[in-house]
């Protein structure tokens, strides 16, 4: 109902409104500035924009939050990508001696795309998704989130809906941002059981697999057997058997009374084949890889790339994610009385601030975007403490008081 | 007052201190003066060692018994530090190890390919040496080199026992109780992380003691890679020293063995023998050239040079050579006059009797493989490198090489190990298990072949007992393989003579 209201042709009218009144620039800047712990971290960050008529511009960089705002409001990008933090300002990279301009740091990122699961989805294919196959995403998020935290010790993970058919994960820990390409590739391979576009399943008994299976088992009966109705339909049953490696199938067929252990492996393997997250390692490997920015609009669906609240991941519904047309519409709606009262209170407290600033703060709060920005605030609050600690240590070292 | 007596002791103490460890990461460059001849001889010896490491790595499973035995032999032969031996003896060898490593860095830092090759062989050599240390020495090495990885306490091990067992046991058959486990940041153990062969918790990898090698190797590789990049940047300064530049270029490009220009066997071969020798003792490239010459009564310039110089190397005199070529060419389209006018000159030139009178040296394998590729109508070059694999296969079959032998050779060719392929050809045609030499020159092939066919058992035994260093002159007389040492020092003398070497520092 909501998505049918979105018409890509309206983007040129909606985007200026979005960037002027809704895009959460303050939080966005707070995030990418990382507390100002490292000098020029924000200034040396590469952004790339896709403008109207598919014009793509790279090596955009900005010296402050207000410059970022002004430029984005001027250009009204259809898509925004975030790249690496470089050794120099990306928009001056042509003036730098060749070889000196290097990508230094970037968040560790993962991209999970539903099309990579096409061979195991019977409800949809290609760019379509539905609530049944969305469970695959939920499983993927759970497995990867657990592993990144427990195995690798990362704390600050931002999961973002890509706007159409997948999710991205941004690992923002300092240690993650400093990882080399080789380290990123190793982490991605550790997490890959099923190599995307390279259908290779290597079964290596390991704690990681054991833990992942625990997650999968929670979802599997409902997902695979009921939602996907795997063993219900003949084609599906054949599909299941087609996925089983030949040697196990051979054993299964030839020795009907197969040993309990082998059947165990067989079942585990089927579960993992169906549900295990499929990563594109190439996205994670490169330090300079550009990935779609949170709060960017998806031009085809109109949906905003919103952060996903992990506490409620099972309830996340991609079809309930607000579109740009919805939130622009919500801007103009008259507000309910109690909301008005709350805002009046806030107004009193914000007397020193710019009036446009005040209006902006009110604006997104009126729309469905509010809860997502609130979640983003919580995510940032979690990181703030580590920045403060770092700044204190730095000033101690420099003996500033 | 007391200073004079203290000083010498301090210096030797310093050296002993520097070289007290059996193995090092080569973090600090050597800070002493050495003579140019030591500079070159150290570098050449290490290069030979590294080339052996490369060849063994291709021919045998790394760290298998054969590999270990042969590598150990080569290390002793080149006078590098090895497991046994008393401290004083080892200090000198470790010093040589240290210095030669840094010299080769200069030679091998310039291009990506050279760097990759050098790093690979040094890593393999390091792997071998680390393995040879006992566990006490291993721990000492780790601590002295700032790999402050800590072992986990017994209680922690107990708590994590099940997880450690599952993650490590399946991968490498390790018993958790028996081994120490180290807690290492995951970024330092990427290979193990990538293949999930390790238990990870909160960013740390829990590694059993025997896996520490992998970590150490990666560390070594990374350090060396960075160091080479730095070295490359300071290379212009090094190149400005004219004494060093030719030496360094020579190291990364050349053949390093006997040059066969000093002919010991002049006149020992008669022309009638050549046909049978071609079948028995010539390497494939020369056999091919000889065959073409007999069939067509002619060879083009490239072929004449390669084959003619080879014949000179095996002992043909100028007169014999002239007679040989003349007889063959006359059977073809060339008459005696034309031969004397056109071709004789170039043969005399080969022997250094014309023009600038350089006595040309027979081509080494590297030269044959890398320069002047043959085109249609040419028969020179290296058949393993330049022939179409199908044609090569047919040729080998026609020379009665067994099918399994042919496929082994083709495998080596596919992997671009042309000299090893030729060595395999040697083994198959001479019916020996294992060549005692590393093939790098067609004339070497001939000499070794003659040894096997003539000397038989004696030769093989001699080369196996290649233990004592060159100081032992008695040994020098015994083994035929010691001869190269004599020629080499002549060779070295030639080179150092050409450079301006006025001083010799202790």
How are the SSEs placed, and which strands pair?
The complex is a heterodimer of chains A (401) and B (506).
Chain A: H1 11-22, H2 25-33, E1 45-51, E2 55-60, H3 65-75, E3 79-86, E4 103-105, E5 108-113, H4 134-150, E6 157-161, E7 166-171, H5 174-177, H6 181-191, H7 207-227, H8 234-243, H9 246-254, H10 260-275, H11 281-285, E8 291-292, H12 324-332, H13 337-349, H14 355-365, H15 370-397
Chain B: H1 3-18, H2 36-59, H3 65-77, H4 87-108, H5 112-132, H6 135-144, E1 150-151, H7 154-159, H8 161-172, E2 181-185, H9 190-194, E3 199-201, E4 204-208, H10 212-233, H11 235-239, H12 244-253, H13 274-280, H14 284-296, H15 301-314, H16 318-330, H17 336-350, H18 365-370, H19 383-386, H20 389-398, H21 403-414, H22 418-430, H23 442-455, H24 457-464, H25 473-478, H26 483-498
Antiparallel strand pairs in B: 1-2, 2-4, 3-4
Protein name (chain B): DNA primase large subunit
GO molecular function (chain B): 4 iron, 4 sulfur cluster binding; DNA binding; metal ion binding
Cofactor (chain B): [4Fe-4S] cluster
Briefly, what is this?
The complex is a heterodimer of chains A (401) and B (506). Chain A is 46% helix and 11% strand.
How would you sum up this structure, described in words?
Chain A: Residues 341-360 are annotated as: Disordered. Chain A: Its EC number is 2.7.7.-. Chain A: Keywords: DNA replication, DNA-directed RNA polymerase, Metal-binding, Nucleotidyltransferase, Primosome, Transcription, Transferase. Chain A: One of its GO terms (cellular component) is alpha DNA polymerase:primase complex. The complex is a heterodimer of chains A (401) and B (506). Helix content of chain A is 46%, strand content 11%. Chain A has 401 residues and is of the alpha+beta class. The longest helix of chain A has 28 residues, at 370-397. Chain A starts with 10 loop residues before the first helix and ends with a helix. With 506 residues, chain B is mostly helical. Chain B folds into three domains: 15-144, Transcription Elongation Factor S-II, Chain A, CATH 1.20.930; 146-213, no CATH class; 272-454, no CATH class. Helices cover 63% and strands 3% of the residues of chain B. Chain B has a four-stranded antiparallel sheet. The radius of gyration of chain B is 27 Å and the shape is elongated. The two termini of chain B are 26 Å apart. Residues 1-9 and 456-506 of chain B have low confidence and may be disordered. Chains A and B meet through helix 6 and helix 7 of A and helix 8, helix 9 and strand 3 of B.
